Amino acid sequence: MLRITAGKLAGAMRGALVGNSTRVAAVRSLHGTEESAEEFDKRYEKYFSREGIDGWEIRKGMNDLLGMDLVPSPKIVEAGLRAARRVNDIALAIRWLEGCKYKCGDQMATLYPYILEKVTPTLKELGVPTLEELGYDKPELALKSVYDQ
């Protein structure tokens, strides 16, 4: 008796969950329009270039970008660096570079040098050192692995 009741309850729950998730997906696809890459870049450049932006808003924008499934374009990286420098937060600028570097994932050997090449004039202009100049590109106290020969 308990097994039959539990089976019916599980079937009803499954139907309710599947029905709700399809409705939610349909509603989400109806909201908003698709945004091109250029529009996306301009939106975040404009966000970081706003007059009177504070450190919290800069961190919020950077965190949102790093949470997305993309690597920020060099224009956005430059805008973020300029915003961090405007609020005189060099640590934020360095962390932004570090976040962008690790966002490259398995393409770090190709994407990060490209970003760094495009952003280097801005880094020099703002006086922000790169991770390599600071020695943050390799661990400070790491020991050699016993498996390396």
From TrEMBL:
Q: Name one GO biological process term.
A: positive regulation of cell cycle
User: Assembly state and interactors?
Assistant: Component of the cytochrome c oxidase (complex IV, CIV), a multisubunit enzyme composed of a catalytic core of 3 subunits and several supernumerary subunits. The complex exists as a monomer or a dimer and forms supercomplexes (SCs) in the inner mitochondrial membrane with ubiquinol-cytochrome c oxidoreductase (cytochrome b-c1 complex, complex III, CIII).
- Write out the similarity annotation: Belongs to the cytochrome c oxidase subunit 5A family.
A single Pfam family, by name?
COX5A
Q: How does it sit in the membrane?
A: Peripheral membrane protein
A single GO molecular function term of this UniProt record: oxidoreductase activity
Keyword annotations of the record: Heme, Iron, Membrane, Metal-binding, Mitochondrion, Mitochondrion inner membrane, Oxidoreductase, Transit peptide
Q: What is this protein called?
A: Cytochrome c oxidase subunit 5A, mitochondrial
The job of this chain, per UniProt, is described as: Component of the cytochrome c oxidase, the last enzyme in the mitochondrial electron transport chain which drives oxidative phosphorylation. The respiratory chain contains 3 multisubunit complexes succinate dehydrogenase (complex II, CII), ubiquinol-cytochrome c oxidoreductase (cytochrome b-c1 complex, complex III, CIII) and cytochrome c oxidase (complex IV, CIV), that cooperate to transfer electrons derived from NADH and succinate to molecular oxygen, creating an electrochemical gradient over the inner membrane that drives transmembrane transport and the ATP synthase.
Origin organism of this chain? Answer: Drosophila ananassae
